[in-house]
């Protein structure tokens, strides 16, 4: 890897020495720029990953691997000591997914946590004790420097141009499409996954070019690392076979391809199965079948090639060709049969929704509810990739012109990734590396043409010096001066004006690119989701810190075992910052449980109170942005709760009931009774009227006037409301002491005595007991 | 009839032209095929209850077969042109590296 960089130093050539030194300095500067541009704001975000890492560092690797998420501070040593069980005292103490719990070791990709754990221990070994939180915060910027280096390597494999790799590195270092997922503190799987993606591709290109089993084995190792880090490894699993398949179909089978692909597949599949979350999926799931199929095909092709060299008979060769075709078709048929009969699991919903774009919206609302899973708009491409988006097709076109094995790879990668990025905003991330590579190829060829190409040597000196005796040339020499058109054409740009103007234009564009990237990064992608920043009229910054205020209230004022119910978006944050058990969280593995929460939120109080009781809920947390105009609140997410729970209980929840007769979603006077009686509506607007003069309550997100009389709550009581009313926490009341239902208890407390005291005997029922 | 003679010719050619070392590799590959086949038959007959154990054993034979085939291809003098950067000794070292990784994963996976 570093050989290319270091090579010039080892050979004693001064010019190349200088160039190598320059290259090293440029790469270091790029890495520094990549790290620096991610430090606009530093706040740790994905809380679950951080919590898991903390657990790993505190309790060691083995207990992390078998971690059933119950208690944060559980010490395995204490469990080994024999203690008589007291089941009455200790009910199930699950921290997440309250009644169910979560087998964390088997349901996460451990690569991220293990990486930061290793860095932590290495630094400790070097006697630089750094807090694990700082490592988690700075992991993504650090790895983005490595990503820049990896894209330098892979682009250098594509072309002989000296500048392409460096251009790709700087593009990859500062492009907003990648920064959006790797700012300091975004401690997410993508933080290391993109580096692994690009580096795996580099190793694959290298192994296909050299046909060396070592590079193939390295590809497999890094592929295994990638599998342990991110669910997007399926992209690699399908891209490498597709590359191989296309090469075979182009008639470019070579022994090199056999060596690299078989080594990668055999080792990589075994490596990927070591991750507990993946398990037997590479054998059982349809997502992985293309790799298996191409592996079989490659064996057949290699065998036939081997036989073909031995047999001179032409007919036999065609027979063999037929044989391979038949075998391939038959095994494809068997594969399809196995899929249909259910031995091999069909496409997983998340993956399938990439092909059938309407599928998720109808069948799995929980996938469609995430804003990152929506189709990408055009401006987003330009916003994230700026000038690269129009250099990208040019770069792909230039790959077609050369079309060696590695260029085929870039073309396939470009086509597939652009499709995926068009379907889903989130997959812009996998598109970014290939866009950087292609754009760097395009720009570097422009620069090579206009900057590096030397002036053509005048013909006379050339002919004298080199004495080349071409027949054409001699023929041209005869009538050299007579006709303009018969002179040897002089290729190359050698007027300084044209050189300077083109190079100047390109330089301007590149500088504008840097400006754009910095602007986008500082303005759009560096806003932490926990702390909201707003500008006061005089331009000064005002920080709205309601989330942490509320979470710390929970942490300090509630019993340790209090269960918090909220919508799943806030599950990890509550678990991490408030340190209280939650019912659902961002790992959406159990759709029914989420739908239960959705049903409790969207039903009448009488319906949701039993649900809350059954799940031991103590506090309910809602996010309300009506006072501040914070649009990402729970009323705006409310329809997704309705949709998700309607998928499970279609006869109890009906989305239509939440719309007015004209099909509008309103919260004001015209809101439907179902809407106004839903728990979510009541919790959001409870006591909200009191803030305003009578009859003037205003919701600033929906921009509507609220009804004069606010909702009444009978089964919950308000426990806490943050400064700007963003987070509201309610305590679930206990059962009534005298056994009344809550509605009548509240009515009694208010003194609403029934006016008619006349003894009206209702239809009495017999007491059963 | 023709197919039979063609196959017989093939066998004769193979016996005559293949060097001793390559024949050794081929015997090893045949052995791996037999072992893998036996495991598969056993799995079909008895059932795949410790599925990871079956996968580890079967994967080991398949992987080793593929690695050996790669070694055979790389050291074949006819493919000299393709593998400019890989000498025979380098190919063997790669083979050893690949096998070590393979066996590490298999032993880990068999539990």
From TrEMBL, chain A:
Residues 752-769 have a biased composition (Basic residues). The chain crosses the membrane at residues 21-44, 107-123, 135-154, 160-179, 191-207, 257-283, 289-307, 319-345, 380-400, 407-425. It is an enzyme of class 2 (transferase). GO terms for molecular function: dolichyl-diphosphooligosaccharide-protein glycotransferase activity; metal ion binding. Its EC number is 2.4.99.18. It holds the Pfam family STT3. Pathway: Protein modification; protein glycosylation. It is a multi-pass membrane protein. It catalyses: a di-trans,poly-cis-dolichyl diphosphooligosaccharide + L-asparaginyl-[protein] = N(4)-(oligosaccharide-(1->4)-N-acetyl-beta-D-glucosaminyl-(1->4)-N-acetyl-beta-D-glucosaminyl)-L-asparaginyl-[protein] + a di-trans,poly-cis-dolichyl diphosphate + H(+). Residues 22-439 form the Oligosaccharyl transferase STT3 N-terminal domain. Its cofactor is Mn(2+); Mg(2+). GO terms for cellular component: oligosaccharyltransferase complex. InterPro entries: Oligo_trans_STT3, STT3-PglB_core, STT3_N. Keywords: Endoplasmic reticulum, Glycoprotein, Glycosyltransferase, Magnesium, Manganese, Membrane, Metal-binding, Transferase, Transmembrane, Transmembrane helix. Residues 564-613 form the STT3/PglB/AglB core domain. Residues 749-769 are annotated as: Disordered. It is found in: Endoplasmic reticulum membrane. GO terms for biological process: post-translational protein modification; protein N-linked glycosylation via asparagine. PANTHER family: DOLICHYL-DIPHOSPHOOLIGOSACCHARIDE--PROTEIN GLYCOSYLTRANSFERASE SUBUNIT, DOLICHYL-DIPHOSPHOOLIGOSACCHARIDE--PROTEIN GLYCOSYLTRANSFERASE SUBUNIT STT3B. Belongs to the STT3 family. Catalytic subunit of the oligosaccharyl transferase (OST) complex that catalyzes the initial transfer of a defined glycan (Glc(3)Man(9)GlcNAc(2) in eukaryotes) from the lipid carrier dolichol-pyrophosphate to an asparagine residue within an Asn-X-Ser/Thr consensus motif in nascent polypeptide chains, the first step in protein N-glycosylation. N-glycosylation occurs cotranslationally and the complex associates with the Sec61 complex at the channel-forming translocon complex that mediates protein translocation across the endoplasmic reticulum (ER). This is Dolichyl-diphosphooligosaccharide--protein glycosyltransferase subunit STT3. The gene is STT3.
């Amino acid at each position: 890897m570093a050989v290319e960089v270091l090579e010039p130093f080892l050979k004693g050539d001064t010019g190349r020495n200088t160039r190598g030194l320059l290259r090293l300095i440029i790469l270091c500067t790029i890495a520094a720029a990549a790290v620096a541009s991610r430090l606009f704001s530093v706040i740790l975000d994905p809380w679950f990953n951080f919590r898991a890492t903390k657990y790993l560092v505190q309790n060691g690797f083995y207990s992390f691997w078998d971690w059933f998420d119950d208690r944060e501070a559980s010490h395995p040593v204490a469990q080994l000591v024999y203690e008589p069980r007291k089941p009455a005292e200790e009910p199930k103490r699950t921290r997440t997914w309250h009644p169910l719990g979560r087998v964390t070791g088997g349901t996460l990709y451990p690569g991220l946590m293990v990486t930061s754990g290793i860095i932590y221990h290495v630094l400790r070994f070097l006697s630089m004790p750094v807090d694990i939180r700082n490592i988690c915060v700075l992991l993504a910027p650090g790895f983005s420097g490595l990503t820049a280096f990896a894209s330098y390597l892979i682009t250098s494999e594509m072309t002989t141009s000296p500048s392409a790799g460096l251009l790709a590195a700087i593009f990859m270092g500062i492009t907003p499409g990648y920064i959006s997922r790797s700012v300091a503190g975004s401690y997410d799987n993508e933080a290391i996954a993109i580096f692994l993606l690009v580096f795996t591709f580099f190793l694959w290109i290298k192994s296909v070019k050299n046909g060396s089993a070592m590079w193939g084995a390295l590809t497999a190792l890094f592929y295994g690392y990638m599998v342990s880090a991110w669910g997007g490894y399926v992209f690699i699993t399908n891209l490498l076979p597709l590359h191989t398949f296309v090469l075979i179909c182009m008639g470019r089978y070579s022994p090199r391809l056999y060596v690299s692909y078989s080594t990668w597949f055999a080792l990589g599949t075994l490596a990927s199965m070591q991750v507990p979350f993946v398990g037997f999926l590479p054998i059982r799931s349809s997502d992985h079948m293309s790799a298996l199929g191409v592996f079989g095909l490659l064996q057949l092709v290699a065998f036939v090639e081997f036989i073909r060299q031995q047999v001179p008979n032409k007919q036999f060769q065609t027979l063999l060709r037929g044989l391979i075709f038949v075998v391939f078709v038959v095994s494809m048929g068997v594969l399809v049969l196995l899929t249909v009969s259910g031995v091999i699991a069909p496409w997983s919903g998340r993956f399938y929704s990439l092909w059938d774009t309407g599928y998720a919206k109808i069948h799995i609302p929980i996938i469609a509810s995430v804003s990152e899973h929506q189709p990408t708009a055009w401006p987003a491409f330009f916003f994230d990739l700026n000038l690269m988006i129009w250099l990208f097709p040019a770069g792909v076109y230039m790959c077609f012109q050369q079309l060696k094995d590695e260029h085929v790879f870039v073309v396939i990668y470009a086509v597939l990734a652009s499709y995926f990025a068009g379907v889903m905003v989130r997959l812009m991330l996998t598109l970014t590396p290939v866009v950087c590579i292609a754009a760097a190829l395009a720009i570097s060829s422009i620069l090579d043409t206009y900057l590096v190409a030397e002036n053509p040597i005048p013909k006379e000196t050339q002919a004298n010096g080199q004495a080349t005796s071409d027949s054409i040339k001699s023929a041209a020499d005869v009538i050299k001066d007579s006709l303009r058109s018969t002179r040897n054409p002089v290729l190359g740009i050698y007027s300084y004006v044209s050189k300077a103007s083109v190079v100047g234009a390109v330089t301007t564009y590149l500088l504008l690119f840097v400006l754009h990237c910095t602007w986008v990064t500082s303005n759009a992608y560096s806003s932490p989701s926990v702390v909201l920043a707003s500008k006061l009229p005089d331009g000064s910054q005002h920080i709205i810190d309601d989330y942490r205020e509320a979470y710390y209230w929970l942490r300090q004022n509630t019993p340790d075992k209090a269960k918090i119910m909220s919508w799943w978006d806030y599950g990890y944050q509550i678990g991490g910052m408030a340190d209280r058990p939650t019912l659902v969280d961002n790992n959406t593995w159990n759709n029914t449980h989420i739908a239960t929460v959705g049903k409790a939120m969207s039903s009448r109080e009488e319906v949701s109170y039993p649900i809350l009781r059954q799940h031991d809920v103590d506090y309910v947390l809602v996010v309300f942005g009506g006072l501040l105009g914070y649009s990402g609140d729970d009323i705006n997410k409310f329809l997704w709760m309705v949709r998700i729970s309607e998928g499970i209980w279609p006869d109890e929840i009906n989305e239509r009931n939440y719309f007015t007769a004209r099909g509008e979603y309103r919260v004001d006077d015209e809101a439907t009774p179902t809407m106004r009686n839903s728990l979510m509506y009541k919790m959001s607007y409870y006591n909200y009227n009191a803030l305003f003069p009578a009859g003037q309550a205003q919701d600033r997100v929906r921009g509507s006037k609220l009804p004069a009389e606010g909702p009444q709550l009978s089964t919950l009581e308000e426990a806490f409301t943050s400064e700007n009313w963003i987070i509201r926490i309610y305590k679930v009341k206990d059962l009534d002491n005298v056994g009344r239902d809550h509605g009548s208890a509240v009515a009694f407390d208010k003194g609403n005595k029934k006016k008619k005291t006349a003894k009206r005997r209702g239809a009495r029922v017999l007491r059963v007991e | 009839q023709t197919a039979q003679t063609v196959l017989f010719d093939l066998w004769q050619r193979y016996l005559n032209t293949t060097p001793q070392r390559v024949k050794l590799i081929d015997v090893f590959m045949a052995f791996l095929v037999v072992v893998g086949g036996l495991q598969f038959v056993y799995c079909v007959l008895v059932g795949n209850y410790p599925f990871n154990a079956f996968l580890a054993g079967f994967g080991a034979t398949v992987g080793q077969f593929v690695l050996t085939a790669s070694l055979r291809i790389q050291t074949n003098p006819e493919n000299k042109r393709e593998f400019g950067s890989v000498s025979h000794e380098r190919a063997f070292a790669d083979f050893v590296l690949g096998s070590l990784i393979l066996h590490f994963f298999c032993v880990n996976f068999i539990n």
